[in-house]
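Re: beginner question about structure tokens

> Can someone show what the tokenized structure looks like for a real chain? I only ever see the sequence side.

Sure, here's an example I had lying around. Input first:
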Amino acid sequence: MVKKDIYILGIESSCDETAAAVVKNGRIVLSDVIASQIDIHRKFGGVVPEIASRKHIEKVMPVIDEALSRAGVELADIDAIAVTYGPGLVGALLVGLSAAKALTFALDKPLIGVNHLEGHVFANFIADDELEPPFLALVVSGGHTALMRVADYNSFELLGQTKDDAAGEAFDKIARFMGLQYPGGPEIEKLARGGNPAAVDFPRALLDQGYDFSFSGLKSAVINYLHKEKQAGREISRDDVAASFQEAIVDVLVKKSIQALEATGLKKIVLAGGVSANKTLQEELAKAASAVGVSLVYPKQVLCTDNAVMIACRGYYKFINKEISGLDLNADPALKLV
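And the corresponding structure tokens:
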């Protein structure tokens, strides 16, 4: 008997990207469509939830149609529909979830609710088609920073997470304070390229205290430094500040990851979340991991940020594990990683 290919339609609308994708057998990407709202929200210095929701309503069905068209499949060919149901902006989540529910009801197809953060981790199965659990995952995004042991495709153990600001949130807040445009992370990274990462000794909170993170104090230290230098009339090197700030974050992320790798004995680590696109983080973690005999996997840039490919991939593994959601599935803006 010939094994049937499994087609998953993924839908993502947790923040300011309306996305849909079709993935075959969990790892073969047939289409990846993203309608970004970055230019719309940039003038406000960040995402405006009400505007994001309205734009999702406008874009969600055209994006789904385009994803199916590019994949060369019909809705009838789809085996299940995977959709992000949290965490994220509640209004934005509800748009994608409502579209998915409507399709599953009309087509009598299974609905699979996906944790957005798990989706980021599963983007690495697209990046490396030989990747298999177990491995360590470093999740670094605008709302979350965590270390997680991925024991199996559907079994996760949270080792540590941020106690306050996430790394991505700290990037965005410092960028805004420095007058840089949204999104702030890539702007800080650009500035940092011309700076000296050792110019300012910013703090590294909780560095030798388990696997939890804290970036609120670092954020305050950068703001206080900028205020102090300005009040003293001293010239500020924005490049040096950006480089030193970025180095403080990367240093903590890398060192805690290596501590977790050595403690667990895992031989592979994956990067996940929007901040995983940061080149300095990729390079420093790869170097440190290699030094302890561990390999690093991270997605290409388009799969680091919000996308529906990762949702379809995660949905596939839930589908074959028979983890189907009911039509009473609701958006959960504060959904936990584990």
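Each token stands for a local structural state, so reading them left to right follows the chain. The longest helix spans residues 238-264.
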